[in-house]
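Re: How this chain folds, sequence and tokenised backbone to follow

Filed under: protein folding, tokenised backbone structure, sequence and structure records.

Contents: The amino acid chain and a row of whole-number tokens, matched residue for residue.

Body of memo: The sequence and its backbone structure tokens, given next.
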Amino acid sequence: MESDYAELLPRVCAVLGDTNKSVVDDTCLEKLLDCFQAITGNETELCILQKNPCLANIVSASKHKDLNPSILSFIMRLTGLLAASEEHFCKLEADGIMSSLFGNPANLETKAWKDATVRCGWLLGIQSMLQHEAVIHFLCKHDCISEIIWLQRDPSIFVASTASQLLANILSFSLQHSELAALETSRKIQLTDTIGTVTGLDSTVWSVCVCAITEHIEGFLKSNITSNIQQALKLLSKVSVTCNPVCIASLWSKVEGSVKLLLNGDLTKIGQPLAELFLNISRTVPCEVLQSNTWELLSLLLRSLNQAEALALASGVVKLQNCPQALRMQAMATLFHPLNYIFNVTKDTTVLLDESSNCRVDTEHHLFKKSTCISLICQTLSHLCEFLQMPSQVIDLPYQALTNSVLTILQLCIGTAVPTTSAGVNISRHLISCIKVQRAGMDVIGAIAQWTEGIKEVENALNLLLDYVRNPDTDCTVLKKTLQALLQWILSCIKAEDSHMLENKLQEFLHGDFISIMKKRLFDVHWEIRDSTVEFLGELCFQFKEIQSFSLLIGTCGLPHLVLELLSDSESYVRASGIIAVGKMDYLSPNWQTLSNERNFTAVKGNILSHLLDILNQDTEGFPRRAVVKVFVDWVKNSHKFCSCEMSDVVPVVLKIGSYDLDWEVKLYSLELAEAFIDWSAFNLSLNPYAIALPNNICSTQVRGFVQNLCDTGIFDILFHALWDCDRPVAQKACKILMKLKMIVSHADNIEIAKNLNGYKPNSESFNSWLSHNDLNLKNVNDVLEVLIALDLECQHQHLACSSDHIESSLRSLLQDILAAAENSEENDADCY
């Protein structure tokens, strides 16, 4: 703790321990605890107490019987933080502080214990000190476990949830420090049902602690009270994700019988916590430790849950590693069942998976009502999309049937599928124009594109997606997802192993109605649709930049002209997306710029650059101006747009405009452009600013030529102007770039500082006068080299890294607020923010 805090802390402790002083704002006390918790992370508790003995006085103040409940709760939590040290815990216990604060709550006044703040402080204090075995001995000695169990039923939801979490932490801590935790999880362990196996600990006190909590869990599981069963299951779930696998397996053997009885009863309201418990157990405990009947119980649970809960459990099961194949297939059948049912009643044809033994009778009931039908389908599609996006997909799925089933659902949504059964007709009424299902279905179709290679499925998917784009009633958000999915299917045609077969189908698609529909959507009355369409076309052109036939198609279809027209759209979002699209279209070969009026390539390029600079200069909205600078950054980084002379001509103009923009993001992107230009210049001079270690003797002539080029561009004026910018991200970026340049300069030989400037720390007000006083010119190479070496940029970088309110939010400021509040007892208006 810093010395300037230490001088205020004794006065604050005196205020907190004085019952005649006004009550400090609760927020101040919370922030003070946060500060102490941060300090204990850097220093030991004993070290803090030795430096600040006044903290011991405030802890001793807990003996006062008329303390305000908020102050008493604060003292409990502070004592818990300090008692995390076993040595200090023993000292406090010897002084009687621990027993008076954390012993039997009957020691506290009844009036104080009735306050939920005090009960919560008592629990949180115990939670903080739960770092050593002495705490467990103390809790057992004073029968605190039974009190914590009782507080799970507290009327205050904060107290009840804190008690439940604390009970889980105590059980986890006890098991983690048992002899079982030291056993190797790689060997098969024969588990027994004896309590001695569960608590193979170093003393009977530990066994009592674990036994008490375990008996409580078993009692709740065997009760017929739903809330008690839920509480016990949640407690087991919390323990299962924090404890040693062998210990969890041992604990599971104790409660498994009670859980099995639950599976044979009514699972209403307990299905979800049961599913969560089984998944946590299965994730935590290795297969070689977990007993085989656990998988059987999990299979039983999967069959017993209602459709919605079974979907969530099935989604978790298919992600488990080393899951038995039979259980995995059962989970897959459960996951696909709603899609399979809809596909069958609509097409009256093949099924996704053979699930004759896993047919769910409640599916038809869920799909009969519109609300439950839409909810079930959306859940199914959501789980399926998540599954398809898993990084390692090893299951051989029926992707063809799966694709067809999702396409069928999307067809039902726009009325292009004709159901063959009465159940299918009823479902189609629910789904027609349902935006929720359409959005979820498009996510799945986009995700499944990489797994499907059949020509028929590709053709069906492309046609359906084009139907959605063509349909004037398609919602804006659905159209955006449709275009994203369409891009994935088009790319899959190019990347597939038999791409030569799919490319012909893709060529037919692109030369069909695709171009005319895109042109129509580019000028839709809804700006969101125009925005999504131009984004899609820009990304499509970027992905197809190496394909000559596509470049020729774009160059002859007139789309580039239409995209350029959108740069004057009335909506700023559309103008910005159009600018980005133009930047990506420029990656295509020059064929796209061979327009119908036969203007040459140079003229077209000049017109585009001129148009972009006009937007940067004149557009009143920030989004288009940001987009212009981002396009130039991309072009410079890829060095495809400009030759060397053009680079030196265009970049300074963009920087001069963008660096003095009122929008901070435009300024930030302008600095990124400056950095890209610096990297390009350094690369041309064989100077790598990203090298792990630069050579100690870089040729000074080489460095001077590099810096001279930057001086001519005016980059140093821009960087030093941005270094003092009022927007911190801008100043941080400028400082980072200058530090990179300083590193290059400092490694050059024969470069010395002529003036005595080293280590200077200027500010925004004094920098220009400092330059004038030392006769320094940022256009002069020697002066720039001196400024770079002289400035303490590292100090400036540290200063910028601090938050803007680092002084107001400091511990010293907080202590001053508390003292100010105490002095003004009538108006407790502490500035706790």
